[in-house]
Write a structure and sequence with these properties.
Order of helices and strands: HHHHHEEHHHHHEHEHEEHEHHEE
Number of helices: 15
Distance between the termini: 53 Å
CATH superfamily of the largest domain: Vaccinia Virus protein VP39
Strand content: 15-25%
CATH architecture of the largest domain: 3-Layer(aba) Sandwich
Bound molecules: S-adenosylmethionine
Largest sheet: 7 strands, mixed
Helix content: 40-55%
Shape: globular
Strand order of the largest sheet: 5-4-3-6-7-9-8
């Protein structure tokens, strides 16, 4: 029987799914890189880690955040060193070493893929599909795009409702949900704000999936779908730009371009709303976000950014009054105003 106090928020279920790649990255760090033995020589800077391990900054950054969040490494004065637990158990020549135990799993496909992503910086196939296309390429296939968009829609049933309860658009007129997927965020926010006009910008063929999904929610009269590429042009006439779970698919240069495109086309007085799983400013947690970042680093060109990284990008694009608000399930809303 259900207890009165039982929490039915799906936080745990989201986390089980989103953290699925994290343990493989730990195995890869221990068994493929022998990373902790390397650190046992003494604390290293991030650049030294990348140079000596011959790994690329984007995946290396995700690995370092994961190990910091797991409290397996520590940071001091921009150097990373061993924590007590890893010094005892994850260094090859320690008498208590568990390295051989981890090494016995190093041929797991996901572990080998991580080694490749770390070395090249290029993402592996979505869902570790053998010789599969990258996520960006896969999204050009209408069948994959439909399945992926339905997945995003199901996650949005909870998260979009929570965001709609949090975001204040009462002084604004028109929202553009950029890379809006099924349009569930635009629908939820429009439902809660009857005066607000709303549209979804999506790249073909996902624009068609968005149209179908919006129609199935009975929202076609309120939510327009615009087909287009957010890197080329963001349509004008909107005073709220929502990027929900969109920045995390791209590297930092691409995210910088998106923020600049947004600032250019947003109406004066409007604001950008970045909704995502963000690391804290020191990139030491939350652990659930550091774990999710492993999946994104493995399968896309992105990762989970920190609140500081996004804040800095928004400010350099020209946005002011940058604010961070907790929403739900370790997701945050970062907003910045075009003053
Ligand atoms: C992770 S999904 C997030 C979808 C939605 N915002 C959500 O949270 O449910 C990322 C979306 O970005 C869209 N996308 C990728 N590249 C794009 C581009 N160049 N222009 C517009 N949308 C793009 C994809 O089609 C996909 O729907």
């Amino acid at each position: 029987m259900k207890k009165d106090s039982q929490n039915t928020d799906p936080d745990r279920l989201l986390r089980y799914r989103d953290s699925i790649y994290a343990a493989d990255l730990l195995v890869c760090a221990v068994a493929c890189l022998d990373f902790f033995t390397f650190l046992s020589e003494g604390p290293k800077t991030f650049d030294e880690i990348c140079d000596k391990m011959e790994i690329q900054p984007r995946p290396a950054d995700v690995m370092v955040s994961l190990l910091l969040s797991m409290e397996l490494i520590e940071t001091n004065a921009h150097r990373y060193g061993l924590a007590e637990l890893s010094a005892k158990y994850l260094v090859s020549d320690s008498p208590d070493s568990l390295v051989p135990y981890y090494r016995s799993l190093k041929n797991r496909p996901q572990c080998l893929e991580f080694h490749e992503v770390l070395k090249t910086g290029r993402p592996a196939g979505w869902s570790s599909k053998d010789k599969g296309d990258s996520w960006t390429k896969s999204m050009e296939n209408p069948e994959f795009a439909d399945t992926f968009t339905a997945a995003m829609d199901s996650r949005g049933a909870f998260l979009a409702r929570k965001l709609a309860e949090t975001i204040d658009v009462s002084q604004h007129n028109a929202l553009l949900d950029i890379a809006g997927g099924s349009g569930i965020y635009a629908c939820s926010i429009a439902n809660r704000n009857p005066r607000l006009a709303a549209a979804v910008l999506e790249i073909p063929p996902v624009d068609l999936a968005a149209k179908r999904s919006i129609e199935s929610k009975g929202m076609s009269a309120r939510i327009n779908v615009v087909a287009g590429n957010m890197f080329d042009k963001i349509p004008t006439g909107y005073d709220v730009h929502l990027f929900a779970n969109a920045f995390h698919d791209w590297d930092i240069d691409a995210v910088t371009t998106l923020a600049a495109n947004s600032f250019k086309s947003l109406s004066p007085g409007g604001f950008i709303a970045v909704f995502d799983a963000h690391l804290n400013q020191f990139k030491t947690g939350p652990l659930s976000v550091a774990e999710y970042s492993c999946l994104l680093m493995h399968s896309t060109e992105g990762k989970c950014y920190s609140t500081k990284e996004i804040g800095d990008i928004l400010m350099s694009a020209g946005f002011g009054r940058v604010e961070v608000t907790d929403v739900a399930a370790d997701r945050t809303l970062i907003s910045g105003k075009k003053l």
